What we know:
mainly beta; globular; 5-stranded antiparallel beta sheet; 29 strands; 33% strand; 389 residues; Beta-galactosidase, Chain A, domain 5
Amino acid sequence: MARVSILLCLVLLITLGVVISVSFADNIEVKSTEHNIEVKSSEHSESSKKEKNVDHYSKHKEKGGEKVNNDQNLNKKDEKKEHDDLHKKRKSGDIVLGYDSIKSYKTDKVYFGATVGRVANRIGKAQFKLNGKEYKTSANDGKNTLHGGKKGFGDVVWAVTKHQYDGKKPHIVFTYTSPDGDQGFPGELNVTVTYKLVKNNELSVVMEAKPKDKATPVNLAHHSYWNLGGHNAGDIFSEEIQILGSSYTPVDGELIPTGQISPVKGTPYDFLQLRPIKDNMKDLKTGYDINYCLDGKAEKMRKIVELVDKKSGRKMELSGNQPGLQFYTGGMLKDIKGKNGTVYKAFAGLCLETQSYPDALNHPKFPSQIVEPGKKYKHTMLFKFSIVS
Length: 389
């Protein structure tokens, strides 16, 4: 089954054209160029549903949901200033992996830029119990459920309900309603994802969800693949990373947590100090794909990751309010044809997925993923970009 996604090309300040592109997935294609912003819808690839989705989207546009070819008057002086702020020697670059077309996103199987859910990461044996009832979820990773199942949130059409491309805080808002029983999960769930460009070259991503009338698990995550050297720069081994997580959740051969929480000290997972990713790669055949138990109090915003590419001079800092972080170095990427004809091989990009712990539904000692009716799930990320000397 094809996966539907979007390419949302944000550039930290929308007036910069393609200075730094950031790719996200939510089923709308937004391309920022030097003189305009083009918004295009993408429909589910199943031919039986495609026309229906097109009609729905057209109606949404008539109500003011989107505007295609929204021209912007750019201030060239400001553009030049911000360009210099973001890059060494005025060298720009696209720092996320992705595709050139919506068509490629529809068949994507590695979640380039996707918003994943209803429950991100893995659910062991595709089952869990809630309030005494056993639920079977859609198995799409062997016998387990990964990123919401066969038709998770990265596989559906979202609606654009708000957008602003000029002013002090350019932003775009996506919404989706997941029905009761979707992929085996209980209860209707209303979801909103807001991307906003804020001061100091920062990108804010806020994911919110509200159950309608049943308790349900919620664990949303953002799945961009980053390469600060550029999406076409090759592997990410030389990049340096700091992860402020003193412990991690060991996994079995199917990447399902064992239930233990172990310290990172003395293991290849110790990135408490900034160091090259490649330092301990020799000890891990397929690279990193592990959940960190983050330091600091969950639900409070705090810095959790620093990523540096000394060659390009780019630095990214990630702050968030979730208890966990999945660090994945793209070991399962294999000859994927991406942007501008680039072929992405293993380790071409890395994912930093703030989240609750994987398989928390089957481990009572892990932070709970259950959201009750009347309560709201809120997941906030802040990406800050700068240069290093």
